[in-house]
Amino acid sequence: MIDEADYIALKKMSTNMKNVLEDLNTTEKTRGRASDEIRAVRDSIYLGASGTPNKEVDEEEEPKVRPKGRILKLLGLPRSTGVRILNSVGEKRYLIRTGQALGDFRMIAKRHGFYSKVPPAGRLVIQKWVRNYHLVVYSPNNRDALKVKVVDEVNGGFKTELKNKIILTCSVRELFNDLYKPGIGLVGPNVEFSVIDPCGERLVSDTVFRTLLPQELRPASQAHKESCCCYLCVLASNYQSAKSRFSLPVKKKLELESNRYELMEGVLSRNVTRDKALALTRLFTYTQEAFKDGQPVHPRPKDFVYTLQCEEPASLAGTGITKLDCALGICPRCPKFKLPKAEDGNEDLIRWHDFKRLPTCTKCGALREGTITCYKCPTRFKNKKQFGNIRTKLHLCFDEKPFSSGFLPLYKDLFKKYKYHRWKFLVLGKTRTVDMKIESLQVGDVALQHDFTEAHTIVHNKEVSVC
User: Fold this and answer.
1) Would residue 58 count as lying in a domain?
2) DSSP state of 202
């Protein structure tokens, strides 16, 4: 019979061992495996818990461990996984006990994975190529932001950064195939890092390429397929968001004006009573014109565009696609632009984000207006040959102007362009377009369709998809 104190101590030790293994096997790295230090601690626990195989075996046979169910239960391992692990560590224990291996139970062999073929500098070049690929675009939605882990060059280790989501508008297979195309991919003598070794073999396989993709890269969703990623759509979203936010302080100002009369005591004069009625009328009228269910009536650009055009034809109901004359702004029956009376002539400041052309350094990014040479490069680089070049690029910047005289004319001109632009990408978008060649087929006709996602299979297996 085992002593009760020994049994409690044994039970506590097994519980602690199980908790340690659980912590060691838990990792936040979804694209990697455990480090060598973690593997050394974990394997030492397995070595201590496993038994030494029988020494009296034939030399041709490999020593094996027969794990008992009690050991697996104490370690919290499944049956199949526990048999595989204890067989592996049991062989190592046998070699150590017989003097055929070094007598260090924590010594492990360094694991050489597939990352050894692609150096860190090469991974950065591949990620840069993916970000600059012509079918990879930055998401125009403000909410499309992701927290990713990046290397902290100042303090060491890793830090979390908020990055804008980048959208892949093609398949990963097509992206991988273009990586090895001359003139497009990283092939040839003039590239920073070649994905083909001197022997002509590929360094990056399809599986490795998927692990090297930027963390903020995401496939295009249905919402992205129905929208556009150009700067005009971003501007329309920013302008309409600023217009909706501007209506809140206007309403608050009218509420304070009407509440001022409610605090007056006694009998009010005729002029004060008239002013009170006018204040309540202005507040009620503005609430009906600019708000719906307590929220701005046009929260999105498309909601405002619907008020500037005729209704859709019956065959296109619910699509947002109207007649071409309505989209061009030449239809005489389209509603006119209406501004609430409380906002007419309002010169309060309104703030929004707009695109501006700024001098941009290829190494340091956007610079102040009127800059000819980069003032950041001398503080970062000692050699002048490392300084960046100055280019002029569009950047999203903060702007502030009076509402009626500064913002409103820009707002009207923008939505004249956006109304036609939205009609165009709805008509030409992938969601509602059809293949006219397929639609025009007659009975007895045959059409061949080559899908780019099957390009690899077609090349090697000589297959063709038949519609």
Assistant:
1) yes
2) B
Q: 252, 290 in Cβ contact below 8 A?
A: no
Q: What is the pLDDT along the chain (467 residues), one digit of tens a residue?
A: 456 677 777 778 778 878 887 777 776 655 545 666 777 777 777 777 776 666 554 455 554 444 467 777 777 778 788 788 888 777 777 777 777 766 555 566 655 554 567 888 888 899 989 988 888 887 766 677 888 888 777 787 788 888 888 888 888 899 999 999 988 888 888 888 888 888 888 888 888 888 889 988 988 876 666 666 577 888 888 899 999 999 999 999 999 988 888 777 667 788 888 888 898 999 999 999 999 888 899 988 989 998 998 988 888 887 888 888 988 989 999 998 889 988 988 999 999 988 888 899 888 888 888 888 899 899 888 888 888 889 888 888 889 999 999 999 999 999 999 998 888 878 876 556 555 556 666 777 776 654 444 443 334 333 333 33
Structural domain span for residue 455: 434-467
What's the domain count of the chain?
4
Residue type for position 160: T
User: Per the domain annotation, does 385 fall within a domain?
Assistant: yes
Identity of the amino acid at 431? T
Q: Supply angle C-alpha 352, 138, 364, rounded to 5.
A: 80
CA triplet 317, 337, 395: central angle to 5 degrees? Answer: 90
Decide: 193 and 121 in contact? Cβ < 8 Å: yes
How many CB atoms neighbour CB 341 within 10 A?
Answer: 11
Whether 429 is in a domain gets the answer no
Residues 172, 210 within the same domain: yes
